[in-house]
Each structure stands twice: as structure tokens, then as C-alpha cells.
Amino acid sequence: MTITAIDTIRPLFVTGLRNAHALENEALSIMNRQIERLENYPDMLARLREHRQETEIQQERLERILEQLGEDHSSFKDAAASVMGSMAALGHAVAGDEVLKNTFADVAFESYEIASYTSLITMAKAGGFNAAVPLLEETLREEMAMAAWLGENVPNVTERYIALEDSGGRGKR
């Protein structure tokens, strides 16, 4: 690889890592709000709690990669993403079908994360940042597992929502 290509890839990779760290910060804000409000969906609550722990570890992985590159995450991006996550979660809180809207949004968010980590892995390989690849691949597997779980559970959440609504209008959360 030429020096020019490396000079191009490194800043792109660092920016992508910082963006991913902020994205995980946003994910934590969203999950924390959802966890606070879930009352009638124990399977979803348990899986969100588990994924929250995974997300915290994912942030640590990103910090480790950035540190290896002599860089740091962006506190500004993290703060902005956290606010955006809180606002997104609050937007669904007023909806009568909050749990459904959250589930749909979570599926979309996981897809976004999958694309982000796939891109970061591509950049890491292209830039020769080989130590980052296994860490990013581990996170990608976790995001893919969460996306699969959410996708598989849309029918279960929907059925539970219908049943709770039918028995007194408690399906919202």
C-alpha cells in the first residue's frame, strides 16, 4: 500500500471509530430509556439488559483500538449522540404502541450498526490495522446476533402487545 493510501485511510478509520463509539453511546441511551419503561415484556427486557452489557464492552473495544492508534474518542460526539438517543426514546414514549415502535427502531438501529462495523472492518484491513480486526469482528457478531434476535421476536412482541391491549390496554410498555 502506498503512503498516500495509508494517509487517506487512517483519518477515515479514526473518524469511523469515533463515530462508532458515539453510536454505541446513543445505543446505551436508547436502551436505558427502554429498560426503564418496559413492564410487560420480560424477554425483551432481559435481552436489552444483556445487550446493554455487550454495548459497554463494545465501547471499551473501540477505546482500546483508538488508544492503540494514539487517539481518543470524541466527547462531543458522545454527548450529542447520547442526547439524540434520549430524544428518540422519548419520542416513542408518547405513542400508544411504544413497545412496537421501539422494536422496529431497534431493528433498524442494529442494521445501521452492522453496516458501520462492516465498513470499519474493511477500513482496518485496507489500512493494515490488523489488531483492530478481531475486536471489530467480535462486535459485529454481537450486533448481528441482536439484530437476529429482534427480527425473530417481532411476532412475539406483537402478539404480546395485542394480548395485553385486548385485556385492558396495558400493551404500551
Question: How would you portray this structure in words?
Answer:
It holds the Pfam family DUF892. Keywords: Coiled coil. With 173 residues, the protein is mainly α. It has a single domain, classed as Ferritin (Up-down Bundle). Helices cover 84% and strands 0% of the residues. It contains 5 helices and no strands. α1 packs parallel to α3. The longest helix is centred in the N-terminal third of the chain and has 35 residues. 34% of the residues are buried. The mean pLDDT is 86.
Put the structure in a nutshell:
With 173 residues, the chain is mainly α. It has a single domain, classed as Ferritin, core subunit, four-helix bundle (Ferritin), CATH 1.20.1260.10. The chain contains five helices and no strands.
Structural descriptors:
mainly alpha; 5 helices; 84% helix; Ferritin-like_SF; YciF
CATH class: Mainly Alpha
Estimated helix fraction: over 70%
- Uncertain parts: none
The number of domains is: 1
By DSSP (H or I, 4+ residues per run), the number of helices equals 5
CATH topology grouping: Ferritin
Following the backbone from N to C, one meets helices and strands in this order, namely HHHHH
* Alpha-carbon distance between the two ends: 53 Å
The second-level CATH architecture is: Up-down Bundle
- The backbone outline, from C-alpha atoms, is elongated
**What is the CATH superfamily label?**
Ferritin, core subunit, four-helix bundle
Pfam families: DUF892
Protein name: Ferritin-like metal-binding protein YciE
InterPro entries: DUF892_YciF-like, Ferritin-like, Ferritin-like_SF, YciF
Organism: Prosthecomicrobium pneumaticum
